[in-house]
Amino acid sequence: MLTCKEVSRLVSESLDQRLPFGQRVAMRLHLLMCRACRAYKNRMLLLRKILWLYAAGKGVSSEIKLSEKVRDRIKHLLSQNYPF
Amino acid sequence: MTSTAAPLNQIEQWVYEYGDALYRYAMSRLQNTVVAEDIVQETFLAALKSGGRFTGRASAQTWLIGILKHKIIDYIRKASRERPVTEIEVDDVLAETLFDSKGQWRVGPQEWQVNPEKILEQKEFLAVLNHCLEKLPERLRDAFSLRELDDQKTEEICKVLDITPTNLWVLLHRARLRLQHCLTENWFATPEGRG
User: Fold this and answer.
1) What does DSSP assign to residue A59?
2) B85-188 belongs to CATH 2.60.120.10
3) Is A40 in contact with B109 (CB distance < 8 Å)?
4) Mind listing the pLDDT tens digit for each residue in A7-28?
5) 3-state secondary structure string, chain B?
6) What are the residue boundaries of the structural domains of chain A, listed by start?
7) Chain B partners of A35 at a C-beta cutoff of 8 Å?
8) What's the mean pLDDT in B122-126?
9) Given phi > 0 = left and psi -120 to 50 = alpha, else beta, which region is B23?
10) Domain residue spans in chain B?
11) Fewest CB atoms within 10 A around its CB: which of B61, B116, B173, B183?
C-alpha cells in the first residue's frame, strides 16, 4: 500500500510521463480511498492550468514595464551596433 | 514566403511597441529585473544583427518572442552550469514537515475553490504567485519554468539543465509541492483567497 508521500510524488510524475502499469493502478487505488491525496491531485491540475494561462500572458500585470532608462540604453546600443 | 528586412529605425520603433511585452514575458520566466532587462536588450540586438528578417507569416512580436525564448533558455543553461550540483541530492525539508514518519499528510490538503481565468485577474493573487515562484530554489524554478511555462519536453529540459529524467521528476515534484504549499499559505488559506 502506497503512502500519501509516495502518492504525491507519483501524482507529480504522472503529469510528466505515463507511469508504469503497476504504479498507475496503485496510485489510482490510493486516490479512490484518500480524500486528501485526491485534493492534492486536483490542486496540481489547477496549478498547471493557472500556470499555462499565466505563461500565455493572461493576467500579467500591465504595470510591469521597461523603464525609460533601459529603453534609451537599448536604443543607444542599437545605433552603436549599426550597421554590422 | 516573403521576408522583410527591418532597418535600424524600424527596430527602434519595435523597442517602443514590443519592449514591454518582451519584458513581461522575460519577468514571468525569470523573476529578476536586471536579468530580464539584459535579455530583452540582447533580443533587440540579435534582431538587428539578423537584419530584422522575419518571415511574412509571423508578426514582428511573435518573431521577437521566439528570439527571446531562445535567449532565456540559453541563460538558464549557462546559469545551471555554474551552480553546484549537490542541491539535487539534498533531502527536501518541506516534505519532512508536510508528512509524518509514516508518510501520511500531517494536515490533509483541501480542494482549492477557484476559477483559473478569474483568479489571474486579481492583482493580489498575481503578486502572491510571483512571490512563490521567486521563492523557489533556482534549480527547482528553472526546471519548473521550462516545463510548465515554456512547455518544453523532458529530453529538452534534461539537455538544458544537464540532468537525468529521474532527477528532473524529483525537481518538478519538489517545485510543485513547494508552490502549492506557498500558494495555500499566502492565498488559499487567507480570508482573501477564500473569497
Assistant:
1) T
2) no
3) yes
4) 999 999 999 999 999 999 999 9
5) CCEECCCHHHHHHHHHHHHHHHHHHHHHHHCCHHHHHHHHHHHHHHHHHCCCCEECCCCHHHHHHHHHHHHHHHHHHHHHHCCCHHHHCCCCHHHHHHECCCCCECCCCCCCCCCHHHHCCCHHHHHHHHHHHHHCCHHHHHHHHHHHHCCCCHHHHHHHHCCCHHHHHHHHHHHHHHHHHHHHHHHHCCCCCCC
6) 4-80
7) 108
8) 90
9) alpha
10) 3-81, 85-188
11) B61
CA–CA dist B37, B48 (Å, integer): 17
How confident is the model at residue B87, as a pLDDT?
54
Q: How many CB pairs under 8 A join A and B?
A: 148
User: To probe the interface with A, which of B25, B48, B152 has the most A CB atoms within 10 Å?
Assistant: B48
Alpha carbon distance A60, B77 (integer Å) = 25
Residue B107 near residue B138 (C-beta atoms within 8 A): no
In the beta sheet, which residues pair with residue B4?
Answer: B54
pLDDT tier for residue B2 given thresholds of 50, 70 and 90: very low
B85-188 and B3-81 share a CATH fold: no
Nearest CA in chain A to B97: A5
- Best of A2, A14, A16 to substitute, by most chain B Cβ atoms within 10 angstroms, is A16
